[in-house]
Amino acid sequence: MLGLPDDVTVALFDLDGVLTTTAALHESAWKNAFDEFLLSQGDPSGPFTADDYLKYVDGRPRLDGVRAFLASRSITADESTVTAIADAKNTEFLAAIDADGVTPYPGSVRYLDAARAAGLRIAVVTSSKNGAKVLDAAGLSDYVEHRVDGNTIVDEGLNGKPAPDSYLRGAELMGVAPSQAAVFEDAISGVAAGHAGSFGYVVGIDRVGDASASSPQAESMRAAGASVVVADLDDLLTN
């Protein structure tokens, strides 16, 4: 009934863009932070775009995202500059949450309810250091048995997505082998992490297109190793 293989007993959910609509807040905050930096440098390569977000930032730990985007523009920056850009982004993101709150996707809540009713155990694996704050603001914390977030990645020296480390840590905390866990991701880097970790099932959530065969995002997810691509989590309930 959950659209997963029978031997999957644990769900490892990414947070922003999978369970909550906060991916849009992240993208907006990144754009403002990067555009301000590019303007200050007199960089002629143009502003930060939605495509830049998907390719270089989405799903990655904060500092890794800064480095990846700057490298894409052939910009060399020291670590203090990288940190300053990341901090500016996070300040704006937190202000947006405080001002507007956090909204979970209704389809995701329906899926979480169905998963909990069916006995599927739930963890969250996110690159964001704000995972606890976002879960609490969205009213989703009670669903989650364990959380791996950006703080865990730093504290335990894990490699960020697209490396599988954070998802493997999530499976370890839940006491299951990767083959018994499903990964749920809206970012290409996260889908790639699930595939690299040999997880039992990798669900791509296409929030950019419509999950059809002609959607570039869905195509990229399948190429990165998604077992299935859906437009919303509750689409799995009908499979």
TrEMBL record:
<dbReference type="Pfam" id="PF00702">
    <property type="entry name" value="Hydrolase"/>
</dbReference>
<dbReference type="GO" id="GO:0046872">
    <property type="term" value="F:metal ion binding"/>
</dbReference>
<dbReference type="InterPro" id="IPR036412">
    <property type="entry name" value="HAD-like_sf"/>
</dbReference>
<dbReference type="InterPro" id="IPR023198">
    <property type="entry name" value="PGP-like_dom2"/>
</dbReference>
<dbReference type="InterPro" id="IPR010976">
    <property type="entry name" value="B-phosphoglucomutase_hydrolase"/>
</dbReference>
<keyword id="KW-0597">Phosphoprotein</keyword>
<dbReference type="InterPro" id="IPR051600">
    <property type="entry name" value="Beta-PGM-like"/>
</dbReference>
<protein>
    <recommendedName>
        <fullName>Beta-phosphoglucomutase</fullName>
        <ecNumber>5.4.2.6</ecNumber>
    </recommendedName>
</protein>
<keyword id="KW-0479">Metal-binding</keyword>
<dbReference type="InterPro" id="IPR023214">
    <property type="entry name" value="HAD_sf"/>
</dbReference>
<keyword id="KW-0119">Carbohydrate metabolism</keyword>
<comment type="similarity">
    <text>Belongs to the HAD-like hydrolase superfamily. CbbY/CbbZ/Gph/YieH family.</text>
</comment>
<dbReference type="GO" id="GO:0008801">
    <property type="term" value="F:beta-phosphoglucomutase activity"/>
</dbReference>
<keyword id="KW-0460">Magnesium</keyword>
<dbReference type="InterPro" id="IPR006439">
    <property type="entry name" value="HAD-SF_hydro_IA"/>
</dbReference>
<dbReference type="GO" id="GO:0016787">
    <property type="term" value="F:hydrolase activity"/>
</dbReference>
<keyword id="KW-0413">Isomerase</keyword>
<keyword id="KW-0378">Hydrolase</keyword>
